[in-house]
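Retro notes, item 3 of 5
We never archived the inputs for the adenosine-5'-triphosphate complex last cycle. Fixing that now. Sequence and ligand:
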Amino acid sequence: MSLFDFSEAELNPGEKHPKSIGIVQSVDNGRVFVQISSGEKLQLLRIGSLVAIPGGLGRYIIGHASRIWRHQPKVEKAQAEVEADDVKDIFTSIPENNGALLNLLGCIRDRADGPRFSRSMDDLPGIDEEVFLLADKNLHDFMNVVSASSKTAQTTPLHFGQFSLDTTASAYLDGNKLFQRHAALLGSTGSGKSWAVARILEQANQLSDTNIVLFDLHGEYKNLPYARQFKIAGPPDLAAPSEDVLFLPYWLLSYDEIQAIFIEKSEFTAQNQSLVIHNAVKELKKAHLEKEKKTQVLEQFTINSPVPFDIKVLLAQLNELNDQMVPGASVGKEKQGPYFGQNKRLIPRNEGKKTDRRYGYMIQAPPEWHVYEALHSLAKILLGFGKSDGVSSGIKIIDLSEVPIDVLPVVIGTLARLIYSLQFWTPTENRHPILIACDEAHLYLPKAQNANPLERAAVESVERIAKEGRKYGVGLMVISQRPSDVSETILSQCNNVISLRLTNPSDQNTVRKLLPDSLGDIMQMLPLMDVGEAVVVGDAVLLPARIRVEAPQAKPLSATIDFWDEWGKSDPREDALFAVISENLRRQERLDKL
Ligand SMILES: Nc1ncnc2c1ncn2[C@@H]1O[C@H](COP(=O)(O)OP(=O)(O)OP(=O)(O)O)[C@@H](O)[C@H]1O
Ligand SMILES: [Mg+2]
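Structure as it came back at the time:
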């Protein structure tokens, strides 16, 4: 039996099928112009409507309408005038025309296990072939074919939601392709990004050895029961950090990051300072390796190798060089050393950082974070996976909600670089793929021209993952409400775009640039979509389509506040609250409840 009901009519030669909406008029590189047979049939079509062009033997070419037009007859025009018209558009020379432009999406073929949809097409439609609209039961059947075709690829498929065109058909994403070649999850604030992330995490949690690190900027994901929670040490955690508190000691920084944090590029002596720091850090790392008797590492380490050193000793050395006098040309006379006065500003500035609690996560880590083995422990946390008691140590949520915004890029840049480097140096056969999900990416992965030195270091680390990550099993998911502010290099490497409602024109433009030209018309939907509805385009979906993202069971704490309703409730506020919130602000700690 045929898949669609329009296949079954018995026709005389030359007779048109009563259900067809028109015929193929011209074909051009995956785009098909259709002449629609009547005004009534034209009214059935919408932008985005799906159509099928039967090719015999259970094969159908599938396309979607990206332009629809009705050209009124130009009866009053003289024939000469019509001919003189610019013939750029082949339809302008036709006096009466109802037409549609289709973009081809793929092909249905009959297989032993039923009809299957795929994007590959072995031939294009021929001229005069009939075109049918997929509506009602036909649409339902088609969406089910798509659903079945994308599901069969994996034993535990990533069930993202339902197709908007037919909400009874489940929409699956190809979990391999989604992460292999990176994904961007975009949408205006409140459009449902965090819920979509939680949905993906929840689905990933069905697998036994999921490996994801999510940067959680607002503490939204802290109540997902299946995930392992960490936080970057904030000022209140410095005294007695609990087990879930992470430190990123300064010795983990690369030389570029050290420069970005400790050296003021605009200072006249910046170059000399870089040189001094370079030499001193290298020597201190060497001394540590000698003390630890790591002879092999000693031979091969570089300035960027994460080897502990003591920042106090470094600053003391810089101080010494700053005041150093060396023997002069004549006996008994001294002259200023090569770095005399060069570090005058560097030292007090960085002495300040030593006690600045915002940098506590880096400088004031407890002693156990300053030993050689600390990197092993951190690697285990970042790259570890597995499950115990229903909690996956592979889904790691890193709460950054108390990290001040100016140090945020350093923290994320260091974490991303460490994950990538550790994965890079994992023997190929032991490598287990890992996804880095960057929520609110516009806050720390800005475009190059807007980035300060700290942000640039972070952007470079993540750009490297965007470009090279695939080869080493590091996937990236960039989540943002302001795609137009996010590094273009990073976004352009994302082969999958999940876009929720997007209202700002410059953000829409950014998304348009990420899509192939033929799908430009999908953009028209972006401002019109419902909350929780997404357009998914890329190699993770068989069909670029609108999907209603299924609400996750465990929801992020991103609930939208209902101002009017809240104002309508009586909620007497104790005087004490104001004192508490003022203290929270001073201490940089948000207590959840009074
Ligand atoms: N798939 C969905 N189904 C039903 N409701 C949803 C869905 N996604 C989101 N919502 C509703 O929209 C609200 C906002 O969603 P969410 O926090 O995911 O937005 P967001 O895009 O992450 O916003 P922001 O950019 O501000 O972080 C949710 O609290 C929920 O009420
Ligand atoms: Mg969010």
